[in-house]
């Protein structure tokens, strides 16, 4: 056997594949040829428009007698949406770019506004405050990140709303009696007002009940879209948004208003319903425009 043949038999290769989460190929695989038992290093290149989300635990490896297949998984770089205040429903879309690290995006320089702070928006409400707005870097670079810029007063208002909407550990709806009590000279409200409030609840509920964007909404006729059926739908689907839970509580208020025969009770329920409707509208604005 010649020296060249012996050398060839003593070598092997490792194939590095660059794929998406779905297994699609982003670029042609690369092969690393090394002598058996010789160590080699797997590089993790920066791919424009992508961020590395999964790689082997060990990138320094030893060539074996069996060819190795190494998968590097990338995903599209996410986006950054910044909202300025509670009434900003459009926000500002900021394009994220590659950094000098394959698994991170470049830092973003957010404008520093006196008396304002940036907060990360999560599915549960406001998250952590951005400590260094001049060098902000999303924690999940392949996802959509939402930020909101608030004054201390606006932040306190949001905190108060989230406290009022805190769910009981047993899954009960918020206790409406904990809200501010109405004044003694509150004017009584007729059953017509209760019916009008029900219609408002129906309209707000459709905007507030943020579920799976791909989930088809149930078809309801006008006679079926009462506050009671909305509450049953909420319980059955186990909503997670505070606004949708509050809409369910509103439906109970409407039922109580229709059944109450005491003017003070009706006036108190009416006052509470107006406050809750205002809270739902504010939460809906804060939640931003959902992707369709």
SSE blueprint:
Elements: H1 3-9, E1 11-19, E2 25-35, E3 39-41, E4 50-54, E5 60-62, E6 68-76, E7 79-84, E8 92-95, E9 117-122, E10 125-129, E11 145-150, H2 152-164, H3 191-208, H4 227-237, H5 242-259, H6 263-287
Parallel strand pairs: 1-6, 7-11
Antiparallel strand pairs: 1-2, 3-5, 4-6, 7-8, 9-10, 9-11
Textual characterization of the structure:
This protein has six helices and eleven strands. It is α+β, with helices and mostly antiparallel strands and 292 residues long. The protein has three domains: 11-75, Ubiquitin-like (UB roll); 79-158, Ribosomal Protein L25, Chain P (Beta Barrel); 167-287, no CATH class. The strands form three sheets. A five-stranded mixed β-sheet has the order 8-7-11-9-10, with helices on one face. A four-stranded mixed β-sheet has the order 2-1-6-4. Strand 7 and strand 8 (92-95) form a beta hairpin. Helix 3 (191-208) runs antiparallel to helix 5 (242-259) and helix 3 (191-208) packs parallel to helix 6 (263-287). The radius of gyration is 28 Å and the shape is elongated.
